[in-house]
Amino acid sequence: MRDRVTENEPYTGDDVKVASSSRTFVARNFTKWYWGLRGFARQRPVSAFWLAISVFLILMAISAPLIAPHEPNKPDFLNIKTEPNRSDIFGTDQLGRDYFSRTIFGARVSLLIAFTSVALGTAIGGVLGILGGYLGGTFDLISQRFLEVLMAVPGLLLAIILVLSMGAGASAVIIAIAVTRLPTTSRVLRAETMSIKETQYIDSARSIGASPLRVMIVHVAPQTVASFIVIFTASLGTAILTEASLGFLGLGIAPPTATWGGMLGEAAVTLIPDWWMVLFPGMFITLTVLAFNLFGDGLRDVLDPRARGRI
Amino acid sequence: MYRYIATRLIIAIPTLFVVSLIIFVIMRILPGDPLVSFLGIELDQIQQITAEERKALLAELGMDKPWVEQYAVWMGGVLRGDMGESFLRGDSISAIIAKRGLLSAEIAVLAVLIAWIIGLPAGIIAAVKPNSILDGFTSTVTVFFLAIPGFWFALLIVVAGILWFGYKAPITNIPPWVDPWRNFQMVIGPAFVVGVGAAAFIARITRSAMFEVLQEDYIRTARAKGLVSRLVLVRHAFPNALISVVTVSGLLLAFSMGGAITVEIAFVVPGLGKTLSQAIIARDFLMVQNLTLVYAGVFILVNLLIDLTYGRLDPRIRLTD
């Protein structure tokens, strides 16, 4: 039953109907998603649990203004560095700002930057990989050398230099993290494209006169979607860690905006850091990275059985 | 073999050259004013400097010349072992990097040792008895440490140390030949944090590599001819699994070198990471430029060493081509 709905669906010419009625389209995809998720939860219950945690964290970030009990950036000089208590359950920081509210708002920055930078980085990396793998020749040679230079510098250092060159700010951080995602994505998709290129259906597409661009978009790209999704989820955790490190170094989003890395950086500046100022933001970073990584692991096992157990 | 090393070294040089070029250009298009760090005064006071004074200062720093010339001067210096002077304090950058780099190098070596000592056995045990309690325990710990930001773990240790053990952050850089014990105290914290993170990485790869090797036919043959289980593991399985572990050591290196920057800062250890962050805040161009070059150089060199070891471990890989 499940298999019939999620995959191997025989072509029935339904596409015409779908185009004419958007309601059928939504309904069909809903059932598809429902069965897909259910199958995933059955096969990988642990990963499904962490998917739920990821969704929870995303919802928390979106509804931050509703959840946060206090204004995240409002100083309260009468309550500076108070330990966690009933009104400030995570305590307050050096300006008396409520740490719980700041932590919740910090999720917004972390998740937004992680998603946009990974989307940007993996998309460009993927295009470079497919182009390089399919076209080969000079383009492939030049893009591979370029990526090798990027890989010659440790990821965090590369991000640091890029943020420095663009000046601090959200877009600088996003672009910097995106660039660090380029080499892995393009390498994986390049290798995959090169093996897809040798298959017969690519030959037949070319023999009936399809242009290289059409072959790449219509025939190659859809085959790489599984790998792409796997790389995307695997990159989210790394992106959050990089963003936190940049914030910790004072290269992230400018204060007073709350970011997890920035909060840890502010806590570390004081000679004797207070335990609550250190504990809570880091806990959330770890939880988020853990959730994305473990969900990604399960997704990879389901989408790409060959890679099971590999990193 | 020698030919292979030579070829690899010849490839490494252009890569380093391009890296240096990129860093150089990025540092020139920076929005910050280099005079800020040189004069150490507020921005609005900088705007009060007359155009002539500004010109004179830039000339003193050698920053009025065309880029090509500046680059040539920098590279010429680097090749002679002179990296110029820090804008911040006017000290010789080579001397600072040599002094502080020693501390970072100690941390790196110790961290690698810790990572292998913990990671390899953990991965092997997990692979030998898959789905056992020990395997479950190792994989849980592994997954956990891969998600923990190193600098947070470091901060937690510092805070716990201050609260419960009367720990004091080191202020001065004590070289090992002056007081080996105090030097060790400085290095062990960052080395432990970086090492444990890397150990998680190694354990994970060792487990999957060992697991794969143990399914091979020759392992069954070895067992079938009555070889002791321990010998099957040590002689037949482990050396082959090691190849995969060494292959990904490059990734591990990037992870550790990047991680060490923030971990050093969390421990207030005056290594290269701390120097880099100070240079970033002060917009000390030349310092950042040189430090990045040093990091990239070490990174490329160690990756080369890894590739060479890889060839040594796996005779199937032809090193001559």
What does this structure look like?
The complex is a heterodimer of chains A (311) and B (321). Chain A has 311 residues and is mostly helical. Chain A has 14 helices and no strands. The longest helix of chain A is centred in the middle third of the chain and has 37 residues. Chain A is globular and about 75 Å long. The two termini of chain A are 32 Å apart. The N terminus of chain A is likely disordered. Chain B is mainly α. The model of chain B has no long low-confidence stretch (mean pLDDT 79). Classes of the chains: A mainly alpha (311), B mainly alpha (321). Chains A and B meet through α8, α12, α13 and α14 of A and α1, α7, α8, α9 and α12 of B.
Tags for this model:
heterodimer; A: 311 residues; mainly alpha; B: 321 residues; 14 helices
Secondary structure elements and their pairing?
The complex is a heterodimer of chains A (311) and B (321).
Chain A (H helix, E strand, L loop, with lengths): L1 H5 L7 H7 L1 H22 L1 H18 L1 H4 L31 H37 L1 H15 L3 H12 L3 H28 L2 H8 L4 H9 L4 H24 L11 H10 L5 H29 L8
Chain B lengths: L1 H27 L5 H6 L3 H4 L4 H11 L5 H13 L13 H36 L4 H15 L2 H16 L14 H35 L2 H8 L4 H19 L1 H18 L5 H10 L3 H29 L8
Helix pairs in contact in B: 1-14, 6-7, 6-9, 6-12, 7-9, 8-9, 8-12, 9-11, 9-12, 10-11, 11-14, 12-13, 12-14, 13-14
